[in-house]
């Protein structure tokens, strides 16, 4: 079984060991122990990547915990419907954000073109 030290995960994901310990404290990660040392397995590494991606995408730690619980436990029909609702809401939010990002990228590209054209007109751009 592949294992990792906390410092290895912290370096790989460019976060602090304290952040990893926090995720452990709130139950999102569950490393094994070797004396006082934490020993993280492949599952912990994958979950850490999912936690960080979820946070970047705007999921709360509670939402991430609920998503993880889908894979960890058998849930009731009502709980699964609730999770589908949370996922649907997040998908709608991310779709709106993606549209906003696409529009902003187009606007930035247009602004950059105008700046370059202005520089060309002023002869400053040719000297660079």
UniProtKB/TrEMBL annotation:
Q: Read off the Gene3D superfamilies from this record.
A: 1.10.1660.10
Q: InterPro entries attached here?
A: DNA-bd_dom_put_sf, MerR-type_HTH_dom, MerR_fam
Using the record for this protein, list the coiled-coil segments as residue ranges, or answer none.
Answer: none
Q: Which domain of life is it from?
A: Bacteria
Q: Name one GO molecular function term.
A: DNA binding
Domain HTH merR-type positions: 3-70
Keyword field: DNA-binding
Q: Could you tell me which SUPFAM superfamilies the record lists for this protein?
A: Putative DNA-binding domain
Could you tell me what this protein is called? MerR family DNA-binding transcriptional regulator
Q: Which organism is this protein's natural source?
A: Photobacterium angustum
Q: What is the lineage of its organism?
A: Bacteria, Pseudomonadati, Pseudomonadota, Gammaproteobacteria, Vibrionales
């Amino acid at each position: 079984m592949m294992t990792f030290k906390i410092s290895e995960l912290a370096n790989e994901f460019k976060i602090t060991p304290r952040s990893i310990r926090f995720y452990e404290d709130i139950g999102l990660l569950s490393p094994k122990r070797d004396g006082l040392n934490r020993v993280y397995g492949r599952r912990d590494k994958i979950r850490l990547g999912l936690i960080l991606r979820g946070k970047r995408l705007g999921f709360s730690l509670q939402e991430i915990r609920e998503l993880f619980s889908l894979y960890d436990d058998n849930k009731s029909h009502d709980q699964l419907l609730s999770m589908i609702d949370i996922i649907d809401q997040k998908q709608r939010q991310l779709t709106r954000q993606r549209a906003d990002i696409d529009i902003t990228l187009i606007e930035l590209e247009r602004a950059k073109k105008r700046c370059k054209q202005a520089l060309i007109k002023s002869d400053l751009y040719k000297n660079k």
